[in-house]
Every structure is written in C-alpha cells, then in structure tokens.
Amino acid sequence: MLVCPKPTTHLHKFRQGNRMYVADISQCLVLEIDNIVWEILDLCPCFSSEEIIGRLGKKYDSDLVVEALNSLATLERRGVLFSNFEMDISAPETEASERLKVLVLQRSSHTVDITRATSGVSVAHQNLVKSLEAHASLNIVGESDEVFKENVRGIRFQGNDRAELLKLIGGNYDAVLLESHQDTRFLSLLRYIDAPFIVPIYCARGHNGDCINAGLLWYAAMRPFDAFLVPTNSVRDLYGRLVSNKDVFQTIPLGVDHNKFHPFEKQKAKNEVARMLDAPQVATSPVVGFFSRLQPEKGAGIYVKIAKRLPHVCFLLTAPTLNIYAHQQLPPNLLCAPQQSRDQLARFLSAFDVYCFPSMVGEETFGLALLETMACGIPPVVPRLDGLPEVVGDAGVIVPAEAHENEIGSFAGAVSPSVMANAVNALLTDEKARLELGEKARERALTFTWDKTAENVITLFRRLKETQQLEDQYKRHFGISFTPYFNNRRRRFESQSILNNITLDKERPLMNNRYAQSIAEGLSLALLRKHSRHEVEAVLHHLYGERRTETILKKVFSFEESVNG
Amino acid sequence: MIQFPCNLHNLHQFKRGDERFVADLDAGVVVPINEVVCDVLNACGSLEMDAILEILTDKYNRSEVFEAFNFLSKLSEIGFLISLDPSKIEPPQRSERPRIFLTGGVLESKKTTSFLLSAANHHLLTTLASHADLYLPVSDTGDDRQSIEDSLRTEGVHPIFFRSDRSFSPAKFIPKDCDGILALVPLTVGEQIFLKFNRYPVILRLSNETLISHESRNTALERCAALRDFDAFACDASWTQPFFSDLVPDLSVFHHIPYGIDTSVFKPMDKTKCKHQLSQALGNDAILQKPLVGVVPGLHPHEMSRFLRKLRLVNPDFNWLVIHSTQVGNDLSDGDVNFFNIASLQDKEASPFIFNALDALVFPAILGSSPLILLEVVACGIPTVVWGYSEPEEIAGACRFIKGSSSLFDPVDLSVESISEELRFLLENPNEQKDLVQAGLKAISTYTWEGTIQRILCLFRDLQNRKVHQPKSAKHRLLFKKHYNPVCGEIESEAFVQSKVPVPVDMEQAIAMTLLEEHTPMEVKTVLHSISKEPERVEKILENLL
Predict the structure, then answer these.
(1) Peptide bond into B316 cis (omega under 30)
(2) Are both A295 and A440 inside the same structural domain?
(3) Does pTM surpass 0.90?
(4) A114 and A71 housed in the same domain
(5) How many folded domains does chain A comprise?
(6) CA atoms of A492 and B193, how far apart (whole Å)
(7) Is pLDDT at B93 greater than 70 in this prediction?
(8) CA-based nearest residue to A346, from A268, A454, A430, A419
C-alpha cells in the first residue's frame, strides 16, 4: 500500500471530456485515472495512508480505497507518479550556466567496479567521467533514476521506451559523451538530441573491421558540431585515409592516476613479488615485465620468444589468464603472476626493470597500460606501431616495426623478436641509461593527467557548442530538378540537373532563374536536404570514385557554405 | 518535416509556474514545451506552413519557428503529438462547381493579361468559367487594376490581386478545397516549383506552337520530368506526343485535348468576296489573279524562309500567304509572299475572311505549328496539304498527307517537290477538293469548346481519383555510409534503412528511395540512368519502388 504523505508537486491533474488524467511531469507520462485516485492525489501531500482511507472510506467503499492505494504503490515501484526522482523542473539555469550539462551514454553501469578491468576502454571511460565531475553536471544513462552525487545523476534509459527517449530529448544538454564508438545503439539519438556529441575511439581497428565500420557509421551520421575523441594522432591518420573530413578527429591524450601509479622502492617491490610467486630469482635478476592480456595480438608470442633469447633475465608477466600459452612449454625464466587488482598494480609494476610491450594489434590507440607503467618509473620498450610512440616520446626505446596496410586477423603490424630482444638487453646492461630513462618516463607520464584530459574535453565541448550556435537554425535548400535534354552540339540526349533559383521557402537568392549542372552536383544538393555531408560523401564515393568525389564535394559544399549566412 | 496542416493527437496543454507542458493523451506522455512550440501546436491543426510562418513571424523570429517545427517533427517521428498517418485527413468536400486555380504567365509578369488576349486562351477560360470557379492570380500594378478587372469580368472568374512588389507565393492564395490547377504556359520559375510542391492535381497545357525552338523543347522535357503521378500534360495537337515518346517513360501523362472551333464564325463563305476584301486590305491586286495558297510556319525562321523561297521557285503560278499565330519571324515577308499575323483578338475577327480567301493550305504537322489554325482553316472549307511524322488524327482522311521523316530534334525533311505535286493535284481536281472539304467539315464538327472543357474537367476528376488512390510514399530513414572491407582493406559504400535492426539496401535503390520522397518518378529515372551502368537494373529498381 502506498505510504503517504507523498509530495505531488510534479503531478498535474486534468479532465478532458468526462475522463480524468494525471500527468507526471518528471517521468513524462500521462495516465488515465478514476475518481478515487483523483481524490487520493488531492489528499496525499498532507495525510497519511490511514487518514486517507478514513476520509475517503465514508464516500467510497474503503476496500476500493485500499485497492487504489495498492495500485498506486505498484506504480511507485515502477517509478511512476511517486518516483524517488527529485524534481528538476525549477533547476536554476542561470546559476549553473558556467557548468556544462553533459549526458553520458555508456553501456556499463555507473557503479561498475574497474579494479579488475582488463579492457582499457572502460578504464579510460570511468576515469574520464570521474574527472569530468569537477567541471560539469553529469547525467549518466543507466538502469534507474538515481542521484549519485550533487551533480551526478543517473537517468533511466533502456533504449526501447519512447517516454525515456522523450525525457532525453527534453533534457537540454550542452553536450553528450559516449563511452565508445562501438556503442552504435545510441546512434539514433543524434537525430533527437541537438547537443554536440563526442564519440571516443579507444579502439581504432581490429575485430574483423568492426571497429573501423562502427567509426564510419558514426562518421556518416555526424552533424557539423560533433567530433570523435581520439587519444593519439595515429588514430586520426588511420581514419584520415578513409574519409575526406579529417577535422572531426580531435586528439586528446588520456591520463593516468598519479596517486595510484607512482614508483615504489624497486628492491622492496621485487622482494614482494618474489615472495608472492615463491620465486626468489625475481629478487636477484633483472626483471622484464609484461602487463596486458596474454594474447597473440598483444604480442604474447613475441614476448615468449624474447624470454627464450635472454635466459639470464627474469620475464615477469601479469595477465588474467595464460590463454593458449598455458598448454605450451614456457621457458623457465618466464614467470606468470595472476591478475593484480588495480589498487595493487603499481606496487607490482615497480618490480619491473624494463617494460616490454610488443603489441601488434593495431588497436593500441594509446596504450593506457604503457602510460601506467611509465608513471611507475619503468622505461618501456615498444614497437613503432599505432599510438605507442606518441605516448613514449623520448622517454623509452622505440623499436622499428612494420605496419600493415590492412590487418590480418587483428594484426596490423609486425615486430621482430630479435630486434626487440636486443633493445631490451641493451637497456638491461646499461644501468645508468636505464635509470635515466626510467626517470624520464616518470616525468613524461606526469604530464598526462585525467584532469587535463577532462579539461581538454570540456574545452572541446565548448568549442563544439560554439560551432553549433554558429550553425544555421535552418538551411536553405534550392528546388532541384532532374531532366533529360537534347544537347544540340553533340546531337544526343543527355541528363542534367537544374538548380531553380527558388528556395523551398519561395525566396529567390541568386541572379538568374535557373542553373544547369551535372547530375552528380544536383544529386548532392538534393541529398543534402535530408542527409549529412558525410553521407553525400559516401554516395559520391560509390558512384564516382575517390578523386572525383573530392572535387564534387568541394564545389557543392562551398556553394552550400555561401548560401547559408 | 511534417506535412501541414497536420493531425494532432488528443492534447491537453497546461502550465506549471512558468513551464509549459502538453499532455498527449493518445501516446500517454507529457512533453515540456516552450511558447513557440505551444503557438505552433495551436496553429498547425488547421493551417499550412506558409500561413503559420506568416502569423508567427510577427511574434518570433523565423529561426525560432523553424526550431519549433524541427522539434515537433522529431516528436512526431517517435509517435508523439502529431500523427504521421494522413488517412484521417478528409478528402476535400466536392462543391457543385469544381474549383480550378489557374496559373501561367500571370503570376509574376508585369504584362498581366497578355495571355488572356490570346484568342484561344480567352475562349478556353470563358467556356471553362461557365462550368467551374476559376481562381486567377493577377499582379496588382495599381494603375490598370480597373481595366483588368473589367476584362476579367466574366461569371465564374475570381481574380486574386497580389502586390507584385512582394514575393508571391501561390500557395498562400490557392483556395483550400481546390480541385486542381490548370497551368498555361509560359511559366515562371516560381510557378514551376509551385506546381511540383503543392498537393493538387496539375494539368499543364502544352501548346504545340511554343515548341518551335530547341530551348523550348528542352523546357518541355523538363516540365515533363516534373510531373507527379497525379499530373498530366494536355497537348493541343495530336502529333505532339509521338515526338516525346522516346523520352517519356509513361506516355499516359500525355492527353490530347484539342481546341474547340466556333463553327458559327469559321464557316465556308463566298470566296470571291473574301478574296476582294483581302486584296483591298493588303493593297495587292495580284492576289486575285493566281490561286492563293496559305502556308503555316512551324519551322525556324531561317528554315522557313528557305522553304518558302523554294516553294515559290517551283510554283511561280501561285500566290502565297503566310499565316502566323505568334509574334516571331516578321522578316518572312518579301515582295511576293504576303504575311498575316493573327495573334491578337482583333486580327482573329478578320481571320474567317482571310481563311476563306485561300484556295488551299500547306500545313506542317510538326512541332511548332499550331493545330488551331489548321482546324480553323479546315472549318472554312479549305483543302489542305499536310506533311509531318504521321497523319494528324484531327483531320484523318480529310487532307492530302505527305509523310516526312522528321523526329523531335532533327532538321525537318522538306520535300518541296512532293508538296508542290500534291498542291497541283489538289487544285487541278475539284472533285478531290470537294471530298476533302466535306470530310474536313465533318471532322471539325466534333471540335467544340464545350467538348474541350468537358475533357479538361474529366481529366481533373481522373487525376483527383488517382491522387486519392495514390499510396502515400513510404518515408524511410536511410543512412549512407562508407564501409571498410577487411578482406581487401578498401573502402566501399553502403546504405541501409535505419530501424531496430538496420536493413542493408542496394546503393542505387537507396538513392532512388530517398529521391522519390521529393522528386517525381521521371526525375528519379533520369538520375538512375545517369549513375547506373545497367539500364535493366534501373527499370527493375523503379518497378519495385513504384
């Protein structure tokens, strides 16, 4: 039974004809109600349930009143009429105007535990969202409407309820942040929410082309004030080869939590690991570390080969599972630690003398694990692939590698185990250089903070919002017609498109009445009425190939540009 | 975008403090709205978009109103506030008299009524006005309003004066329950667009004599491309259609609706008397001495004068009279060839006498020649020699016909020899003349203005029905995107319909689908033929979609 008193400030009752309705403003719902409920709603802000039964019991059968209160309780459980969602209607817009109101679209729940996460995507996203809390009011989609903090609330959105969608549309957001570009189920929201979207690409290629194709899907649907967030220029360069508008890729490096990831005393760390693994050689030998999933894509096979080449060195790895390598004869100098919780990780990483990460996956857009290891003062040895060199800079050894034009499996590059082994060995034998480089790595890592990332994201949001405000509210489109015509000079019938000098609002902006041009140009202008520039790019690419597409696009877009002021 | 006026759900608006809300009782939702959206909602159930804009732009700026449109269209897409189902919109109540909106040449040109002065149009309109209410937009230049009003003072004609200094939108003036639009050439760009983006059936009057140049033929093709499924071309000549047959996918858009002939005016008269009158009018006695042969031009002026020169050279024993119905080509007259322009009403009154002075008529049944002159001359009992692509239906069996091998854009095959032969045969055989004249008079008797109007009204009814039965073209949410093919590492393009489960669509088909929402089937066909290398597939795609 509904426990009263309950506030009803978010409810509005009205009659239409001889029917009665109640509108729940906070949930965007309308329900048809009967007499009893109408009266209960009148009473329930001031009286307890018992009092209500007492008062209404005289007029109606008290069983009916109880029944009505019960059904209201059922609604309450479903979050309708009496949800715990606090009224947000009178939210003072002006006061909060400094802070952006950001909608966060994510697949995982806001309270997900990332201490054992193995995917860089959710680690990066959770850290970014956490840092954004200081700069913006966040609304995070999830399973329920709950308030996490003063400026962080959850919004119930399962993706298939229209009323939920309506709530999002009416949300007046300044910006929308996605967890990952692979979340294409949020794609349709671009049509309904006018705020700029930032779509991060933490995973550039691989997965049988799925990553690139999800990126291309967002690209097609993006409006002029949306952007991709890419952690390194390598991602921008990769996608820049595939699409013509490279400006949508905005590079913002990720960060690292320096409270968690900092150097510990090396010998002490080594001793601890030696004790943990019951392997005294860790404490006495040089240690080459590997901290990633133990998969071929991440260079597990190469790492094992390097271990075989340097038998006097201890190779220490931490991974959730040993994968296929569990069934193979691993060299005796290769030690496997179970996965470390993220709180313990820095202590473990500090036992490394060198961090060796021969990843060839083509989806190391950044290398979050790499940065975390660097933050612990470990000099890295990595191949010249993907985003890794950009993170390492001059604070590590970058080994030459060959990048493939397109991938096989998920492999986008190749690195030689012996070249890698030589680099590792050189660093191990030169202690001075190694320590210097470790220090440098630590210093470089200090320049990457989540706070900086969040600030950059906020700056980008503000810039996109400006772009959006500069965008025209509505575009002028000309009446385009297509027609065959007789080309008298060539004595044959050809096709043309006509740009009639009249916009669909019946204005006449140009000098002449009509202008003839090619079908390709007319088609582009006609498609632009309903489709994005990027979609027109895809159509032209299909019809006319890459070279002609660029020329046509340039012409059509510059025309469109000069029409709309 | 929403189609205005639109079907609103059962709505209830209310305020909470300064916040406005609308409750959608059909969908069970509450939508927070602003003032603009509120005003648009109040207006859009009964008004067209133009009217809503007009009303609200006093209060808000244009972009705010468009923002509100945009917001409502988003909501309607997910099923809120506005119903996208047009089935509830009542078909217009049929009044006793059909209402027809007239457009063409009058809307934006300064010479407001020039086309009305053309005799044929005058007849057409006055007869039409006795059966239907005609709405005729006329630019109000201020000074001559009274005289225009006088000239239009016919029962059933409703002039709509508009100020020519403001941009004119026919959509604002067209009566709500209009049965159709009759468009007479020439059309301005604005009118052309209007004809495409309105919801009424359109009959475009295609006048053969305006098709004399390449440009105007190309324009006709363009107009043809702009016809929707419930529009039609009404040609005045039976021989217009074959010229376009290769270019038009659906010949059923062509309807032959001939002019009427007022046989009380155009009738056989005393030839000698008429010849004398003509010779006096021209100040030329020679007309009385040789047989007088009329020639109707249908060619380019330079071709025409070459043709005439040749005719004269081969037949020095005839006199020639060129009969024009348009203003062009006055340079034709030279010494022996006499020249008449019967474009204006005043001249029209003289034309029965002129025609009756003829002994024969040479007529090219090709693009650019007016069928009206042919019919009027035949009505005066003059035997004719016709050359063209095919024998004109209008006077089938009632003329000497010479088949030429002309096509739409090729130079006309001018067989001066065979024309001369036919002429001589005709003038030397009074019996043949008599037979032709009798057959001609019989054929002409079927052409009345009443009949013309009935055909037009009947066509409007057909188009109305076609429009009612027209399934509303399905709106698709299509997305075109590039696609990375991991096999070869190359970029390809693909399209799909965005729904819960995206459905991939063939690229050409997707282009056709998205274009069909705003372009006519003919236009889409033009585009597809231009972008596709396989004509058979184009046909298949269109067949599937239509």
Answers:
(1) no
(2) yes
(3) no
(4) no
(5) 4
(6) 27
(7) no
(8) A268
